[in-house]
Amino acid sequence: MHVFSITMDGSSKSVKKEIDEAFFLAREFKIPVPEDEFFQEHRYLGENRIHRVPHHLRSRKLKEEEDYYTPKMVSFGPYHYGLHELCASEKFKPIILKTLVSSSYADIYNKIFEVIDQVRNCYVGISKEKYDDKSLTEMMLLDTCFLIYVMKFRLKPLNYPLLTQYLGVSGITLALRDIYLLENQIPLSLIKRLINLINKDGEEESTLICNFLSTTAFEDKRLKSIPRKNDKEPLHLLDVLHLVFANGSNNAREPVKPFSKCKWLPRWLCTRKEDQSKFGLFSNQFRSVTDLKAKGIYVKPSSYCLKDINFESYPFSGQLQLPIWYFSAASNRLLSNMIVHELSMGTVEGMVTLIYVNFLKSLVVRVEDVRELREKKVIFTGLENDEQVLKVIKEIDAGGIHYAPLLEEVKKKIEDHCSSKARTWFAELKHSYFRSPWTLIGLITAIVLLCLTVVQTYYAMHPASPAPARSPH
Predict the structure, then answer these.
(1) What is the pTM of this model?
(2) What are the transmembrane regions (predicted)?
């Protein structure tokens, strides 16, 4: 049985069928299947549920570095409820609940209780034996109120001082990062429902959500509506944020030109051997940003859409357009969780973040590469130096999947450009002698001296004949 496979048309039906058959055999032979093992994790692959991080990814991460999938300050939802290290925020949640709902608790509780079965179905393995309707309603009410309070604090910190008072600045930072963990999600429908129930200032639920997500993604409030996925509402906040980065903020003001139509090769892991040797599609190694610059290829920001990667070749240069991204200390956790979210969808078309991260890692191998991307305004950062940005990029967990559907068309164009001897010669000439006015002046001086030397040598070898003397009349 395949551990993880995707059919060529992008569906996950074959995987789900095999897993369902394995569950049937396990029940027939009374074999216990732990909830955190492979079968439980992937049984609902591709379905509209809040998925668990696959066991092999979490164990792999624990062996190597920091765990990016477990909350550090606060749990949202049932997956990490009751962790001892999160007890500080659990004591604080009732205070927030009382602050937001005040005397209307009973009415709001009943409204949440009415939809608790729908909420339960959004999670994997949360049975009534584990959490009955009453306990799950209380948990979701506490967690969702806490989430809404954090969202409001992020937009107007001075109006919501309790968070600073109880958690401190470092605790708030961790709580904001925990919001975008895959296993720490609350159904978007429940968030919107509770915002409407506790709303006192007339603000629509979509406005608060859009402003919060837009501040996270763009540091402004350009997002005007929640993007939809196949005409359906996204399941949770991470799902919405993924749509914003994967499809671009089509209802927002883009700071640069709209993203170009990037051609994606539909084949994945099915290229013939002669194509592999020609294009190097299965190689993790690729030319870095500084190597491309030496070949006359320069980077330029495209847009905030992670699909917007394109390459244009010109007679004497090339231009690689890359998405804009702001790197912070939490970017590795966010991108790692977005990748796991994409893998849970079970479709090749949805692996936008995985493609971007793998391509970025191939381009950025040295500090000089980071500096070039930063100077070209492709990446921005609030970190202290480029070494930290390089470290964050290297630590993004792509799940060990290097042979994802990469940008084969873009890489082929780049290789074709670099294989041109004329372009390479001109690029090396420009890189060596046109980097500054002084090198240009030196080149012109050398050319003038060379011309004078040639002229002098010519006249030395061919002296002018003396004019014939005139005979006297």
Answers:
(1) 0.77
(2) 438-461
Output the pLDDT for position 464: 63
Query: CA 371 to CA 354: how far, in whole Å?
Result: 23
Strands 310-313 and 318-322: antiparallel
Residue in the structure block whose two tokens are 């977005």: 338
- pLDDT band, residue 465 (cuts 50/70/90): low
Please answer whether residues 334 and 180 qualify as being in contact, where contact means their C-beta atoms are separated by less than 8 angstroms. Answer: yes
Please, what is the average pLDDT of the chain?
Answer: 79
Angle at 80 between CA 334 and CA 33, to 5 degrees: 105
C-alpha–C-alpha distance, residues 435 and 431, integer Å: 6
CA dihedral 284, 289, 290, 296 (to 10 degrees): 110
Half-sphere exposure (Cβ direction) of 172: Cα atoms closer than 13 Å: 16
Indicate the length of the chain as a whole number.
473
Q: Are 55 and 38 in contact (CB under 8 A)?
A: yes
Per-residue pLDDT tens digits for 282-326: 455 578 999 998 888 999 999 999 999 999 988 878 899 999 999
Residue type at position 19: I
pLDDT digits 0-9 by tens, 326-355 = 999 999 999 999 999 998 887 777 889 999
Q: At what angle do helices 87-101 and 188-198 cross, to 10 degrees?
A: 50
371 vs 376: CA distance, rounded Å: 9
Q: What are the backbone dihedrals phi and psi of residue 350, each rounded to the nearest 5 degrees, phi first?
A: -85, -5
* DSSP SS3 for 13: helix
Mean pLDDT of 234-259: 71
